[in-house]
Every structure is written in structure tokens, then in C-alpha cells.
Backbone:
């Protein structure tokens, strides 16, 4: 009884889910809704990797960014990272029409890199240096390729990373 209380109330959620094992984690992540995925899985994971200033910005004025956070280099210079989080597959089959969610992601990427964001906690305007496209399910290789090819010629095209359920589970199990 005491052990259960400690595990439930004292051991961080992230450590509890890491003890589930790979297959159970994949199942859990693919079944949760977007907000639970963000607040119970992604935010603790990003904290664990040393990202700071994590803010949930989802909403009408998000500028294409659901989460924003930063990392500091050795000189103390902050690099801001925006993340767009989806609780759905991001999929494209070769030769098939482009799905609505890929078009939305492309628009959000463009908006994130071409907008100036203001975070009250930072007390200044800032621009995104990197962008994470995150899905609690699957991001197909053709979808990744299509997004990258659609951004050819854009200065920010090389600053985009993709994370799906498989890579998120790998990160959880690594920590």
C-alpha cells in the first residue's frame, strides 16, 4: 500500500511510464489524446533532456506552434524550438493526393518560422530556430520526404526534426 502511494504520488509520471516496456509504451502513447500526450509525456521528457522555458501555446494565436522551449549553448545564447504536436498519423502514400494534415503542418511550419512570437515570460519577441513535428502515432517516410521537398529553398528547411511514437519511446527508454 505504501509502495503504491509512493509510486503514484512521488515517483514522476515519466519514470512510471518508462517502466512499462517498449510495446506497452507504444500502445499507451498511440491511444492518448493530444493534451495528455503533451502534458504527461512530452513536457516531462523535454525537461529531462534539459530544455527550459517550456510553454504550451496551442490556440488561436499559436503561430503554428503548440509548444515552445529553448536550449542554451555554452555562451548562454538561447536557441528557441517550436513543436507542432499531432495525435494522428501523418501519412502520405507515393502518388496519392496530399493529406489535409500534411498541408496543415506545412502551413504551421511556415507560420512558425516566419512569425515573431512574444512570450510574456521572456519579455521579448523571439524567433524559432528549430522545429519539431511530433506525432503520437506514425509519421511515414513519404510524408517526411514530401514536407522536406515542399520546403526546398527555404532557409529553415534544414532545421526541422520529426518524432513519432517509435522515436519518442526510444527517447523515453534512453533516459
Residues:
Amino acid at each position: 500500500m505504501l509502495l503504491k502511494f509512493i509510486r503514484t504520488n512521488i515517483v514522476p509520471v515519466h519514470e512510471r511510464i518508462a517502466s512499462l516496456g517498449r510495446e506497452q509504451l507504444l500502445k499507451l502513447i498511440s491511444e492518448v489524446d493530444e493534451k495528455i500526450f503533451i502534458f504527461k509525456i512530452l513536457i516531462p521528457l523535454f525537461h529531462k533532456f534539459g530544455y527550459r522555458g517550456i510553454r504550451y501555446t496551442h490556440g488561436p494565436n499559436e503561430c503554428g506552434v503548440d509548444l515552445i522551449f529553448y536550449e542554451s549553448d555554452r555562451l548562454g545564447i538561447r536557441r528557441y524550438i517550436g513543436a507542432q504536436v499531432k495525435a494522428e498519423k501523418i501519412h502520405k502514400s507515393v502518388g496519392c493526393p496530399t493529406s489535409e494534415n500534411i498541408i496543415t503542418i506545412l502551413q504551421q511550419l511556415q507560420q512558425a518560422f516566419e512569425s515573431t512570437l512574444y512570450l510574456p515570460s521572456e519579455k521579448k519577441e523571439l524567433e524559432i530556430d528549430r522545429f519539431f513535428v511530433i506525432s503520437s502515432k506514425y509519421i511515414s517516410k513519404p510524408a517526411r520526404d514530401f514536407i522536406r521537398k515542399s520546403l526546398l529553398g527555404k532557409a529553415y528547411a534544414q532545421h526541422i526534426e520529426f518524432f513519432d511514437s517509435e522515436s519518442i519511446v526510444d527517447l523515453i527508454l534512453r533516459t
